[in-house]
Amino acid sequence: MALQLSYLLSLLLLVLLLPYSTTAQTSSNQSLDSSLTAQEKGSYWASPFGDFAFGFQKIGNGGYLLAIWFNKIPEKTIVWSANGDNLVPTGSKVVLTKGGQLVLSDPTGTKIWNSGSGDLRVVYAAMLDTGNFVLASQDGSHLWQSFDHPTNTMLPTQKMGLGEKLVAHYSENNYSNGRFQFALQADGNLLLQTLAYPIDWSNTAYWLSGTIDSGFQVVFNESGSIYLTTTNGSILMTVSSKSFSKQDYYQRAVMEYDGVLIHYVYPKSSTNTSKAWTWSILLPPNICKIEENIGSGACGFNSYCELGENGRPNCRCPTGYTLIDPNDVMKGCRQNFLPQSCDEASSETDQFDLSEMESVNWPLTDYGHYGGGVTEDWCREACLGDCFCAMAVFGGGQCWKKKIPLSNGFKDPINAGTKVLIKIRRDNSTSKLPGADLKKKNLSTMRLILSVLLSSSMFLNLLFLLAAFLLAFRFKYWKLKARNPYLVMPGMNLRSYTFEELTEATNGFREELGRGAFAKVYKGVLEYEDRKLVAVKRLNNMEREGDMEFKAEVSAIGRTNHRNLVQLLGFCNEGEHRLLVYEFMSNGSLASFLFGDSRPYWYQRIQIALETARGLFYLHEECSTQIIHCDIKLQNILLDDSFSARISDFGLAKLLKTDQTRTTTRIRGTKGYVAPEWFKNMPVTIKVDVYSFGILLLELICCRKSFEEAKGDDQMILADWAYDCYKYKKLDLLVENDEEATNDMKRVEKYVMIAIWCIQEDPSLRPTMKKVVQMMEGSIEVSVPPGSSSFISSM
What we know:
Layout: H1 2-17, E1 24-25, E2 30-31, E3 35-37, E4 43-46, E5 52-58, E6 64-70, E7 78-81, E8 93-96, E9 102-105, E10 111-114, E11 124-127, E12 133-136, E13 142-145, E14 153-154, E15 159-161, E16 165-171, E17 174-184, E18 190-195, E19 202-208, E20 217-220, E21 226-229, E22 235-240, E23 249-255, E24 261-267, E25 278-283, E26 304-307, E27 313-316, E28 321-323, E29 333-335, E30 352-358, E31 360-361, E32 366-370, H2 376-384, E33 391-395, E34 398-402, E35 409-411, E36 419-425, H3 436-454, H4 458-483, E37 495-496, H5 499-505, E38 512-515, E39 519-526, E40 532-539, H6 547-558, E41 568-574, E42 577-583, H7 590-594, H8 602-622, E43 637-639, E44 645-647, H9 687-702, H10 718-727, H11 739-742, H12 745-758, H13 769-777
Parallel strand pairs: 1-4, 26-35, 37-41
Antiparallel strand pairs: 2-11, 3-8, 4-5, 5-6, 6-7, 8-9, 9-10, 11-12, 12-13, 14-23, 15-20, 16-17, 17-18, 18-19, 20-21, 21-22, 23-24, 24-25, 26-27, 28-29, 30-36, 31-35, 32-34, 33-34, 33-36, 38-39, 39-40, 40-42, 41-42, 43-44
């Protein structure tokens, strides 16, 4: 009996100590102030039975993803993530704050993601065995849950309501949003559609349920069936009808990066030999059949889609073409030869040939169609003599000519009755690129010179000269390295540069990128940092309290970290010299883009507006020190390589002299964007930025400046004209001759209403930038704005 008691006590002690032998915390409830840290050993909160875990997962050789994953299978398959477009480094933390929200921060304390505005009723967090991570009240009510914010995956017991969607990842190992989504629209129609990557805007529906005005909710029940219901719960249609016992299988439905919706199952039993995810059903039946008027189809431009045995697309290149990026096949293909010159098309005809491919086609890219019984030879000659023709399709006495880029390519036996003729150079190589013959000639000449030099004493002199040159170069390099000890401000990655370094980087401040009343901006190249391009802002007329004040303000700017802000890289604070070093924005300012040679697309403009709003929301409410910009305008919104909006010059207001002016009214800001309170000596708040954003939003909608004398009295001031058009239901005048915008008038009206709210004379009537973002994203409704008497246009 004593032996049995001793055994039981030992067993109990083992059970009590077991949870402390791992970095996982298996308690189902996590109290306020609980936190997890991103580290190599792994840090997570497990569900009560350990089926799921919430915490950090390292992605390849990169940073960490805050995620939820299946925790009992070797693959640790991720089903939800918070920061797919912004991986965090080792040492980052997620905290359940006393304010009732989850906050993800990097090691410097910069907020990367949060679960929302928070709720003081939250008393604990819990990872449930359904795969749902929740923030709950004392009575167990779920005040926030991951099931309400899906990424690309649904799990059993999860539901998807009107307006909700699963967005595919960009690729298998890149968790940012990609090119496809599975969405239940607000009208009840369930569909698969392509997105206008890199913006989150739908393009083409390639599968749909046809349940307009009747669809209400997508349900993934415990037995594994996925179906669409009406408001009363009746099943309208079934997406996946195969049933799997939840005791025997893990399940998930995934909107895959290649556009296929797949229902996966994984056996739980250790006796099952098939220990891997297998798919049970997929949509659409043939992903290769996507045909887009605007877009590349299932695969990238100049490629074609071949359906694999598993129902997934295989993206291939036609003859004479190669993948742009072998690691990302969906980026498409490029010609691996020099295209035909239009100046010498007739003389170059004999340098090209037409390679035949069968059962392949690229629909909707024709620019020439010839019928009436033309022959194949005629079709060939017509393409060979046309510099625009990259491919011809012949069949049934008809000829179609296509040009680059080719879209919607797919392989299908149905196309066997036609011939695809692809134009390539006869040698099928890049040897005809400009300068190739010259390079060969120069190589032969060099060989001859070397042979002569080697046979004479002149070769020794050449060696001495070469050694002297290399020595001088290395000395200059060592000098640069010696005087650049990479001084970094504590707590952030801001470099402290000397004035001499920045003078050399800008070649004596030679290439000016722009100027304002308090600074000039120059293009620079940091030779000792891998020739990194930068923009160097040389400040003048600043506050002169001293080094500590300047560094404090620069430190506040440097702690910001958001995808829609221009990143500050470093500074110079040397004597009278105050300079800021920013990342270089290759596509210049929004002003140049908007009023350039051609008008930007409507969807591109509204995406830029949303990105700018998100950046301002971050400055006002999410960064560690609240920043009021004070000079939001088109010139201060810059565009990066992918034309994403980045706010610049934020935080500079505190670095200027108190009497520094931008207009004759001795106020900060720019004519046409200035909030009324500047004129009334009222306290300045974040609402001055909201006003300026409202004006900027109208400029983006209408593609015109806020004040134009040439427009006449009724249209001179954009804000007044826009309100009149809204009031008298003539919004079409604002987007006249803009076909894309005219076809999207509901959005035009909504954005004009948001702008009118933003430019209210009374700052208290203006929404916060958080609410502006929510209205633009559609998560809250836009109410009817007050009349014109409650707003004025600043001059």
